Amino acid sequence: MPRKVTLQDIATDLNISRTTVHRALHGKEGITEQLRESICARAQELGYTNNYVASSLKRKALRLAVVLPRKDGSGRFYFKYAWDAIYEFYPEANSLNTEIECHYFDYETDQQMQMLQSLVDAKEPVDGLLTMVAKSDEAMANMIKRFGYRNIPVVLLDNDLPGVHRIACVAPHDKQIGRLGAEILCAITHNPGKILVAGGSPESASHRCNLEGFSEYIAENSKQLELVVAHEHGNYERCYAKAANLLDTHKDIVAFYSVTARDTLPLCKAVQDSGLAKTLRGVGSDLYPESAELLRNDTVQALIYKNAFDKGRIGLRILFDYVVKNIRDVDQIAVPISVIMKNNLLFFEKYI
Question: Whole-angstrom distance between the N-terminal and C-terminal Cα of the chain?
C-alpha cells in the first residue's frame, strides 16, 4: 500500500513551510491566491487527501446559516422540499463538527433582510450562508456583498445577483423553463385566442426570466396566440380574483400558464369555478399534493417540476464542501427540470 501523502511532503516538494501548506489547503488567510492555487494543484497531483474527520475534531464547530422562506403555509408548495433536503444533511454535517442554523422567513415581509442583517452584524459570524433572493434589488445586492466583506461565503438559490461575489448560484434555466411551458401549450392548444398567465413577481429575477422565455416562444412560434398576464404573486385571494375577472372579461382565453408553484392553485381554482376546467389547456408549476390532483382531474395537462429538493441539497453541499473541505471549483449550477403529465406522475410520487 502506498504511503499517504502528508502536509510535510507537499511543503518539502515546494520548498515552503508546512504552515503555508496548511493555510492554503484549509482556506486560511495570510497567503496570496496565486500561491494557494499553486499549492492546491500540487497537492492534488501528489494525491493528497485530507482526513476531514480528524481535522474536524481539532477545530471549533463551524456554523452554516440557511435563510429560506418558511416550509409551511405558502412555502409548502416549493420551499418545504428544499428544507427536506437541508434536514437530510444534518447527520453528515454533525459528523464533521458542523452546525446548520435554520432561519425561516415569511416571503411577503422584510423578515429576510432583518435576518441577514442580524447574521452579518453578529460578533460571532457564521462560517457560511445559504439563502435565496426574495427581491432582486440593490438593497439585497448590498446585503449579500456585506457577507463577502466579512469573508463569509454565500451560496444563492433560484435568483442570482451580479457582482455580489457569491461562491455559487444553484438555479434552473428560468428562461428555458418559460419556453418549455410555451412549447407544451402550443403543442396542445389548437384554437386561436389568448393565454392567461400568472406571471409571478416582477421583483423576482427568476419569475421575470420565466415569463420572458414564455413570451418569446409564443411570439416566435404562434401568430394565433397572445398573452394576458396577471401579476398578483403570493396572495391567493388577489390572484384568484384577478384570474377570475380576466376569464370573465376575455371570452377568447384558450389556455393558461403559471410561472410559480404558489400561483398555480388560485389560477386553477378560477378556471374550475368559471366552468372551464377540462376545456382550457393548462400548464402549472412544481409538484405537491394539490398540483398532483390537478393533473389527475385534468384541470392541467402538465406540470413543470423545478426540483426544489435538489436545489436545497446541492446548494448546501456546495457551501459545506467549500467551508469544510476547501472545494472551490463551483460557480453556476443548473438543476435539471422535468415535465410531469398524468401518465408519468407515478414516477414522481416519492417527491410529493
Answer: 47
Listed in order, strand segments (DSSP E) in the chain are 62-69, 98-105, 128-132, 154-157, 168-171, 193-198, 225-230, 253-258, 281-285, 302-305, 332-334, 338-340
Query: Are 51 and 321 within 8 A, CB to CB?
Result: no
Complete domains list, the chain, with CATH: 7-49 (1.10.260), 60-172+308-336 (3.40.50.2300), 174-305 (3.40.50.2300)
SS3 340: strand
Q: Percent of the chain scored above 90 by pLDDT?
A: 65
Q: From residue 8, how far is each of 5, 24, 94, 111, 270 by CA, in Å?
A: 8, 13, 29, 48, 69
253 three-state secondary structure? strand
Q: What is the pLDDT of residues 171-206, one digit of tens each?
A: 888 999 999 999 999 999 999 999 999 999 888 888
Q: With 0.85 as the threshold, say if the pTM is over it.
A: no
